[in-house]
Fold these 3 entries.
Entry 1:
Amino acid sequence: MTKQPFQLALLTLLALSGCSEEEVGKATFTTWGEAYIEEGIPASDEGFVDGWSLKYDKFLVNFHQIQVGAGNGEVAATAPKSYFVDNVEPGRKQLVTFDEITAQAWDRVGYQIKPAISSAEVVAGSPSDLDMMVEAGYSLYIAGSASKDDVTKTFALGFTTGTQYQECHSEQNGKDTAGIVVTDGAEDTSELTTHGDHFFYDRLQGSAGSNIETALRFDTIAAADDNGDADGEITLEELEKQPLDVRLYDPSGLPAANMKDFMTGLARTVGHFRGEGECTISEAE
Amino acid sequence: MTRSLNRVGRQLVSVLGMALCCVACSGDEKGTTTGKRITLHTVVQGDAAVAEPFVTGTRWNVTLSSAALAIGGLYYFDGTPAFVRLDPPRRPLLRRLERLLIGVAYAHPQHYVAGNALGQMTSSTSADLFAGPSELPDGEGVTGTYRSARLLLPERNAGPLADELESHVAVAAGVATRDDKTVYFRVHADRADIMKTSPTGEIDGSVFDEVAVEADGTVTLTVKPSTWFNLVDFGEVEPGTSEAPTALVPGEAASIGFALGVAQLSAYHYAYEP
């Protein structure tokens, strides 16, 4: 007699729990530097227009605050740590996987590239490079060499910019898709792509008209060393003393009177989403 | 032709956006503080230091004696001001195919999204930036949070400085010194020069001091002509004299630098006062 209400309640509870079982999937984030970072940037109309070719030795990036959310402010997951990567190492590198994400469209995906912290996970690259980044306060660090005819210039440049990439979107199946779509029992993978050619563009903003093309240039960057100590290594100090060549470079309404400021502006454009995908960027908090 | 269509198209989008906003909000009778139609008085002025000496990014000491600007219209938005934006260069066919086949990407972050149009002053006019605050025709708008603005440069000049500006959108004169060289100069920028940076002839994404606009008020555009000179190197410019200043030659580096400076977003600052 007394057992019946208990059994009824138990059955009801089981039924309810069965009905409310949430459909979930996984969301994985990777990074890749593509051919320009892994193999180099050639001279030609598909690379530098002024005859230089370039090879990266290091392309160090610090990813923070990888986050999946929705337009209503709901946050599905935030990466528990930061990730240090040398994207010269070939292939796609896994940064983080969020298990048990509610199966639905998550249209607010973002991440940050900002100065390294010592607790970052070394996903690819040397721990000593992470130490160097932390000590210098770098978020991005590039090193390599560029050549034209019989001239070779080396460079090792660190940037301290902190950039928030938010509302990332990309073309999926021919449609512009905001964020990611997680389906029940499946794993969605997003690549936080880094573009190595952006440091050498000649405009800070894209042209609104197709009549104005953006090009990759290195002559003025190389000239920074020629006008500096001419030791073959281009430094940020030399780039700061190198005025913008207004015949070749257009700051596009943004402040940049020298090549250091110009390349620092370009450093903010390195991060992308799923290859060609874009994010809205702002100063990282 | 395409440029004109682009410009007209963008203006149309702005006007439509504002009209839609007005329509959407005009039915709001619940006393909310957004979406009410308002009148925006408009003032333009040179910044307080317009006549003071300044140092350019090219390390020249410059003192201006005059500066004037043509205005084709002002538009205000709720999007945050421009940050950095980059489009990919055009790629040859082989590279584009490679991108399609193996996923190599050259995309770009998008950094200025104007958002909703909230207000506008659409009359063409002009201003002497050494003359203190000048009233422009009234504009209109809706209540909301204003964050960024666009200056449209006119195809034909109008207003009190139209004759002085001739066909140019910005003119200035002054003296520049560096080391032992002194250059007396006058310089102008044409709309076509600005269109090399902004094909629509707009200076788009300047800072509008973020403010929740709730009633009629005054929008003040403060222009900082010193910013126009940040990229100007007078090193190859003839010295001239105070009586006969050297006119910077279009197409030469100093003139190009001036046009890039006129296109600088930070040369224009917008603020609202109730």
Entry 2:
Amino acid sequence: MDAKVMLVDDEEMIRESVKVFFQSEGVGILTAASGDECLDHLEDGFRGVILMDVMMPDMDGWDTIRKIVENDLYEGNIIVMLTALGTPDNNMEGLQEYVTDYLTKPFNPDALMEILQYYFNLLGALEPVDGK
Amino acid sequence: MVNNNIVMIGVSTGGPIALKRLFAEIPPLNAVLVIVLHIPPGMDYKIARSLAAVASMPVALAADGEYLRSGHIYLAPGGFHLKLEGNSRIILEEGARVNFVQPSIDVAMKSLHKPLKKRRIIGVIMTGMGKDGAEGIRHVKALGGVTIAQDAVTSAIYGMPKAAVETGAVDFVFPLMKIGKKLFELLN
């Protein structure tokens, strides 16, 4: 199935467990272990909801978004930050309009699916569900 | 100056879903509603369309030169700062980012003037990162307006509401759905 979600997280356990969850929901998902892999997927044509971990080595979630915007790869995507409680957000200046939502890990899978359904509708990726 | 109540809502990360939930529940209000959401061009009309599908009031992107009508919701478009002229007419301006953002909530709120007698101005700061809107809320309070911030529990991120609260100029800190109830109580 076409991927509608990209999870960007340096922790393999998180990538694997989230992948299993989305596959069980019938939602196509790509994973990326770093900001660079995320950019590669975008250059290969991925467009959808990007779940972006904030704390990653080498290039954090904020700098990854900066690269996405600088390289004209933002359009057609919605970005949701994933953070652990207490994650600093002091590198986010100028990115407010590109970060549509912000979830704290561990997140509630059902709540996440409800939010994602809304974002898929916003992107026009799926048919609207009861007009909302 | 046209004699309308004005509600100006500043919101950012977490905003699209919060606005959908808020406006799905509240009936038409006796006010003009201006929403300043940190948003890029290209996403703005999608948000407006999605809000229009659930709100009980008409929703549209704010257009330059347009006069505001009571009972309507106006969303500031991406790529411009929004100001109100005479509390009644939309002015869209290009220019440098303010607080690293565009549209800036501070720019919009600081364009408000003291309302005519018996008319309300209400400033609301909802979920978001950074501190845009804090000075705007201070200005709304100085005009004699009512000021509301979304609480930490229901905010996707409490940055902007917290910055607003820290000015000392916020009257009420409410969970999302109570904001709607308060608006109705104040306006209708």
Entry 3:
Amino acid sequence: MSQNHKENSNQHKFIYGTVAIIAVLAGLFVMQLNKEQPAAPLELINATLLKPAKIVKPSGLIDHNNQAFGLKQMQGHWSFVFFGYTNCPDVCPATLFQFKNIAKMLDAHPHIKANTRFILVSIDPERDDAKHLKEYVQYYHPDFIGITGNNKDIYSFSRQMGVIYQRQAPEKKSEPDNYLVDHSSAILMLNPLGQLQVVYSAPHEAETILKDYIAIYQATSGQDS
Amino acid sequence: MKQIFFIFLILSGYNSLAGSDPSLQITNAWIQEGPPNARVLAGFMDINNHTTQGIIIESATSDSFKRIEFHQTINENGMARMRKQDKLMIKSGASLKLKHGGYHLMLIQPKKHLKEGDKIDILFKLSTSTTQLISLTVKKPTDSQQGHQHHH
């Protein structure tokens, strides 16, 4: 009896929900029609577009030149962001090589390239100071940006970006500086307002990321490459 | 021409076949080039055990690094986790690929900046009471080596 009632109630919720969604979609459709050039539906291969974009408020962070890195520095361009660390043997170098490949492929789209940044945020700020990060990221590309800060500010920024990380115990007690950090493998993307807009989940492939990014870029900026 | 072929054999790591017997067959042994200040690098290779017994790689050492460990990258629930393995076991007739996003050698504290084209020797200590010298070539990764998706 109560089971039936529950099912009925769920069915109602479903119907109301469907009606609401259709109403919203109809509204959007009308809005699109009112535009001069209605946008084609955005088809993405692997990326997840966050709607609405998530507002993030970095605080206390510095770039690899010891300059403050906040919302102002995040605005005005699209930014690929990866949270990693320089003592990372496998995943982080692989991701930075993919950034390098994406940057290289963007040479064919100079307008987009000029509006794109690549950022490594260190989740291991105790070992990754600005000077060390600078040499590390610039090996991959002279335009790449390394971000560090204190543990508290890095942690706060990572949580806002939906990233988790956890430091493992050192392998040897005699080498307390030799430890690994488990971390989220996703590549995040900030829009030109400095808001979290896209999540590229692992496994990553440079070509797929680029295709999705170009689709998002063109759909949101209304500009060609 | 013969000389070129000979050099190719050396580069391919087939020279390790000529070593102590029984031994593992090692191919595509390479180290990913890293930034000059990288404190760790990763080593990869294909290992085949064509012998009639299981072989355990008990340890790896090299003059070029402070220490070498065996690690496995595990990607699950959106997290990249790194787990140390004490040994690598290759059963008779089996193979093990050390590759991105899986098992690899973690090369701790390179003594100098290794550059593309450098040759590095690593000594495996095997459970068969023998050692095997592996020659790894330093390379920059190609797209196919990065393309994890193709292997899933």
